[in-house]
Design brief:
Layout (H helix, E strand, L loop, with lengths): L1 H13 L4 E15 L6 H4 L12 E12 L4 E11 L6 E11 L3 E5 L29 E6 L3 E2 L4 E12 L8 E15 L2 E13 L2 E2 L3 E2 L4 H8 L3 E2 L10 E2 L2 E14 L2 E11 L2 H4 L7 E9 L5 E10 L26 E2 L2 E2 L6 E2 L12 E3 L1 E13 L2 E14 L4 E19 L3 E12 L5 E11 L1
Length: 445
C-alpha cells in the first residue's frame, strides 16, 4: 500500500525524470537478558530503536528517489515498534530531501550517517552520537566540500530543530551549524579541522515563563552574544540559551599497511572550553582499515574523558556537560542523552526548579572495537571500560566502574536476507553482572 502511495505521489514528476527508484527494508530483533535491563551496547546509540527494557522490536523503512539531470529528490520514512518504552510505536525518519552538486537540503527527521563502520562510541560526534531519536527540523549543508583550490576545501552546514518531547522547558528550539577546513596534501594525506555549534533556546519555562525566541534573538544565538534572558533584577549578562560545541581535528593517511584516521574532538560549553582550559576532555581516537581484509576489516580505539571540565575552583569551571540551570532537561530528547552516552541521566528523577537528573557528567572511558568478515559471515566486537565519577558537586564514592562487552555474527543470504546472533555482557562494581543474547533478521528490497 505504501509503495502504491509513493508511486502515485511521484507520478507527475516521474514523467520528466531520468530515473525513479524505490526500496526499503524490514528488521526485527528478539532479546533476552539475565536482568530487567539489556546490556549497554544492545540499546546505546541505536536511535532509540531499542530501549533499555526492550525485548522485541521491529523496524520498517521505505525510501524513494527521483534523479534529474542536475538534481535529485529523496523521500524516506522509517517506523519502529518495540516493548519496554513509553511510546511503543514511533517514527524514526520522515523526511524530504533535495540535493545537487553543492547543496543537500533535508526537511524532517532523518537518521544520521553511520561513521567508521559503526565502531565509534560517539559516531564521531560527541554532541550527537545517535543515542536518541532523530530530531524534527531542517538542515542545509554542503553535499560536497566547496573547493577553494587543489589543496583546500570547505564543508558547512546550518540547521534548525525542535525538541517536541515532554521536557522542563516546553517547545525548546535547537540551532546548529558547522564549518570545516579540509586540507588535502596529496592522495595519501588529508587534514580536517571542524567546529560544531549547537544551542538550545526559546520555549516556555515553568519558572520564568516565555523565553526569548524572536527573530532578533536568533542572531544573538547564532553569535553566542551576551544578553539578559529571564529579566531578573541584577541578572548577569551571558549568552542566551544553552550553548554546546566542539572542535575536531582529523588526520587521515594511507600507506602499505592500510588506511589510518587519527582524531580528537574537544567539547566546550562556555569560554573556558573554547580556550581549551578543559583539556584533556574529549574524544581521542584512532581508526585503522588494513590493506589485507581477509579476516579483520577495521579496528578502532577511543579514549573519552569528561572529568576535567575546566576544574571546580573558578567561576568558569564546573562545565557540567549536557546540563543547564535554565534548560533543566539538558541535552536530552525523550530523556535520552543526545550526545556521548557516558553522561548519566536518571530518568526516575522528577525535574523541578531546584534539581537535576544528570547524576554523572564526569567519566573516563576506554573503548575498543573491531569487525571483519569471512565467506558470507560478518562479525563485530566492542569492549568498553567506563569509570563514572559523578559530578564535582556530588561525586561518586566509590566510583562506578563498568565493563561493557558486545559481539555479533551475521550471515547474509542474497535471497533470504541477513540473520544475526547477538551477545552482550556487562560487569560492574556496583551492580549485578548482566548477560544478554538475541537474534535479529533483516531484509532489504
Amino acid at each position: 500500500m505504501k509503495n502504491l502511495f509513493l508511486i502515485f505521489f511521484f507520478f507527475p514528476l516521474m514523467l520528466f525524470s531520468q530515473e525513479f527508484e524505490i526500496g526499503g527494508s524490514v528488521e526485527t530483533k528478539a532479546i533476552l537478558s539475565s536482568e530487567n535491563e539489556n546490556p549497554f551496547w544492545f540499546h546505546t546509540n541505536t536511535n532509540y530503536v531499542l530501549g533499555e527494557l526492550t525485548n522485541l522490536s521491529a523496524t520498517a523503512e521505505l525510501k524513494a528517489s527521483l534523479t534529474y539531470s542536475k538534481f535529485k529528490l529523496n523521500a524516506g520514512a522509517a517506523v519502529y515498534g518495540r516493548d519496554g518504552v513509553e511510546n511503543n510505536v514511533q517514527r524514526r525518519d520522515l523526511y524530504l530531501q533535495f540535493e545537487n552538486s553543492w547543496l543537500l537540503a533535508t526537511v524532517g527527521p532523518k537518521k544520521q550517517k553511520e561513521m567508521l563502520d559503526g565502531l565509534s562510541a560517539t559516531n564521531q560526534n560527541f554532541l550527537w552520537s545517535g543515542n536518541a531519536r532523530p530530531l524534527p527540523g531542517i538542515l542545509l549543508e554542503a553535499n560536497n566540500p566547496l573547493k577553494i583550490s587543489n589543496t583546500f576545501g570547505l564543508d558547512w552546514g546550518i540547521g534548525h530543530y525542535e525538541l517536541n518531547d515532554n521536557r522542563f522547558v516546553d517547545g525548546t528550539h535547537v540551532h546548529y551549524k558547522r564549518l570545516a577546513l579540509i586540507t588535502t596534501f596529496n592522495e595519501n594525506h588529508k587534514l580536517t579541522a571542524k567546529i560544531r555549534h549547537y544551542a538550545q533556546w526559546g520555549g516556555t519555562s515553568p519558572v520564568y515563563g516565555d523565553l526569548k525566541d524572536e527573530f532578533k534573538d536568533f542572531f544573538k544565538i547564532f553569535f553566542a552574544a551576551n544578553s539578559t534572558e529571564i529579566g531578573l533584577e541584577n541578572e548577569t549578562k551571558n549568552a542566551i540559551g544553552n550553548h554546546l560545541g566542539s572542535y575536531m581535528l582529523t588526520y587521515e593517511f594511507k600507506n602499505k599497511l592500510g588506511e589510518f584516521s587519527i582524531y580528537h574532538e574537544h567539547p566546550f560549553e562556555d569560554g573556558s572550553g573554547t580556550r581549551l582550559a578543559n583539556l584533556p576532555d574529549g574524544v581521542w581516537g584512532i581508526y585503522f582499515k588494513p590493506e589485507n581484509q581477509k579476516i579483520i576489516s577495521s579496528v578502532l580505539y577511543e579514549y573519552i574523558d569528561t572529568s576535567d571540565q575546566s576544574g571546580n575552583k573558578s567561576v568558569s569551571g564546573f562545565d557540567g556537560y549536557f546540563g543547564n540551570n535554565l534548560y533543566r532537561s539538558g541535552w536530552t530528547y525523550e530523556e535520552n542523552i543526545i550526545g556521548a552516552p557516558f553522561i548519566l541521566f536518571d530518568k526516575s528523577i522528577v525535574i523541578d526548579g531546584d534539581n537535576t537528573a544528570f547524576i554523572s557528567n564526569r567519566s573516563k572511558v576506554h573503548h575498543f572495537a573491531l569487525m571483519g568478515a569471512f565467506s558470507k559471515f560478518q562479525w563485530k566486537l566492542k569492549s568498553t571500560y567506563a569509570k563514572y565519577l559523578g559530578t564535582y558537586r556530588k561525586p561518586f564514592f566509590p566510583e562506578w566502574k563498568y565493563w561493557y562487552n558486545y559481539g555479533s555474527l551475521s550471515y547474509k543470504s542474497e535471497k533470504l536476507g541477513t540473520f544475526t546472533v547477538l551477545g552482550g555482557a556487562d560487569f560492574s562494581n556496583i551492580a549485578d553482572t548482566l548477560i544478554g543474547g538475541g537474534i535479529a533478521y533483516s531484509y532489504s528490497f
